[in-house]
Design goal:
Layout (H helix, E strand, L loop, with lengths): L13 H9 L8 H14 L4 H6 L1 H7 L5 H4 L4 H8 L8 H21 L2 H9 L4 E2 L7 H13 L6 H10 L3 E2 L21
Parallel strand pairs: 1-2
Helix pairs in contact: 2-7, 2-10, 7-8, 9-10
Length: 191
């Protein structure tokens, strides 16, 4: 019997199906993962998530496995290297934003002890189940705070997608086999 998945999931793309089934909507609050997803979501602006997902492994290589301590040190030479890397999305503004956002991410870690603790302070501790939205009061609030702290490419729509990706918001559609089924390892709490 074939499983029914969310309509957006391209069943012809095994990576997309795997992402849908095993990762999207699953609470994951490891700071390295949170950083990776924040950078990838910012590169999605104006593109499809499938496009970004197809380049994910290349991004991991290009961005030193999203090692925050390395990314914050990227300078002009590394920016040019990234701009010439045909395996990733080559957008100067997004690349520069990724470096700036890394610096702000680290500042948040220093202030709150981890980025996950910071997220919890804004989004709360429960998984939110909602379908069919592209922004919410929570994504508005987090987006505004990140922008105030100096991040870019973190508008409310990007942040909403980010919150879905990391499992704060579970948006699996009603006819999807994962509808309201995914929770973190700690029940419905997100941290």
């Amino acid at each position: 019997m074939t499983k029914t998945r969310c309509k957006w999931c391209n069943l012809e793309n095994p990576n997309y199906v795997k992402y849908h089934d095993l990762e999207w909507g699953v609470a994951n609050f490891d700071d390295t993962y949170l950083f990776e997803m924040l950078i990838l979501e910012s590169f999605q602006a104006g593109l499809s998530w499938e496009c970004v997902l197809n380049k994910r492994e290349d991004f991991r290589i290009a961005y030193d496995n999203f090692d925050l301590k390395k990314v914050i040190l990227y300078g002009d030479k590394k920016i040019e290297e990234l701009l010439n890397n045909q395996q990733i999305i080559r957008n100067r503004l997004k690349i520069k934003a990724s470096i700036q956002n890394a610096k702000v991410f680290m500042q948040i870690q220093e202030e709150f002890s981890s980025f996950a603790v910071y997220l919890k302070s804004i989004v709360g501790e429960k998984t939110i189940y909602e379908v069919g939205l592209s922004s919410s009061q929570i994504s508005d609030k987090l987006s505004k705070d990140l922008q105030k702290r100096g991040m870019t490419f973190v508008g409310t729509t990007i942040i909403y997608a980010y919150l879905q990706a990391i499992g704060v918001i579970n948006s699996h559609e009603e006819d999807c086999f994962l509808y309201k089924q995914i929770e973190s390892t700690e029940g419905s709490t997100i941290i």
